[in-house]
Amino acid sequence: MLKAGVLGAGHLGKIHLKLLQQSSKYELIGFFDRDQEASKKIEEEFGYKSFPSMEALIDACDMVDVVTPTIYHFECAEKVVNAGKHLFIEKPITHTVEEANTLRDLAKQKGVRGQVGQVERFNPAFMAVNHMIENPMFIEAHRLAEFNPRGTDVSVVLDLMIHDIDAILSVVKSQVKSIHASGVSVISDTPDIANARIEFENGCVANLTASRISMKKMRKARFFQKDAYISVDFLEKKCEVVKMKDAPKDPDDFAMILTNAEGVKKQIYFDNPDVSPNNAILDELESFAEAIEKNQTPVVSLTQGTEALRVAMKIIENFKKLDI
Q: Transmembrane segments in this chain: where (predicted)?
């Protein structure tokens, strides 16, 4: 078992502490949080060991899970990696792309593994269909949330949209060609609602919308490719796959047949895979343990986390051009 510790014991940090304690792949050593009063309460209530310093926790672990506010990610992660310990770090990987590049290169130099907490990669609906997504040419994603003051220290792009950016980059096997975006600040100092159009070198176009001031929640993505339409509901954990194939000469009475303008007939059929319920956060943490044990590249590597951040920051740069 890998000895694991958590840096940051806020809302998400407490969830990670609970799951690491439950996991059969980790031995939870404890946590460190700069708020000593809160740390004492957590220690008394849950029994997790509170360490007196970040360095003391890092020294006691094989793997450190960084769940601090984004602005402190690099400071914490750099110490973890310099100590030769494996790093799990929540999204976004760091506050700036420069920090992410430095962290990625440092981890490679030190020979340690690093994984970014892009939890939607482990959403059971996405996992059920991601192998079916082949060369999509148009993608549409909507991620809408009700207002929550927690998380407004960063733009809605880094808070919410980055989930869809990462998922899309994982299935589109092409470089980003251009980005056009707009955003509006309604309640926060940074944009609360944003739309981005990402064009790839292979012709694929992705249209992403994210909002944290909506009346209802929504987390959906739709992927369109040759002879197939794939829909993923990340919130309800449901997926739908609609495929087309050449129609048989003698279709049965219940077959759904479409005829295009050229007279070519296609049969529509549904191929919806089973979605197995899971705890996505536990799965991402345990997948990282397996990557460490087997000396493999993690599912969401530091390189991938860096690329997702780079695209997110390009979107935010578009806002600045519009003086938003």
A: none
Q: Burial level of 297, CB count in 10 A (0-12/13-18/19+)?
A: middle
What is the number of residues in the chain?
Answer: 324
Instruction: Give me the pLDDT at residue 253, please.
Output: 63
Q: What is the mean pLDDT of residues 96-113?
A: 98
Check if 2-112 and 121-241+311-321 are the same fold: no
Q: What percent of the chain has pLDDT over 90?
A: 82
Yes or no: say if 237 and 168 are a contact pair by the CB < 8 Å rule. no
**Is the pLDDT at 310 greater than 50, yes or no?**
yes
d(CA 164, CA 220): 9
pTM beyond 0.85: the answer is yes
For residue 125, what are its two tokens? 């609906």
Domain definitions of the chain by residue range: 2-112, 121-241+311-321
Higher pLDDT, residue 320 or 156: 156
In the CATH scheme, what is the code of domain 2-112?
A: 3.40.50.720
Contact present, 284 and 115 (Cβ < 8 Å): yes
Task: State whether the Cα torsion 141-147-151-157 is positive or negative.
Answer: positive
Cβ-based neighbours of 74, under 8 Å, separated by 6 or more? 94, 95, 96, 99, 102, 103
How far apart CA 61 and CA 51 sit, in angstroms, is 12
The CATH number for 121-241+311-321, chosen from 3.30.70.80, 3.30.360.10, 3.40.50.720, 2.40.50.1020, is 3.30.360.10
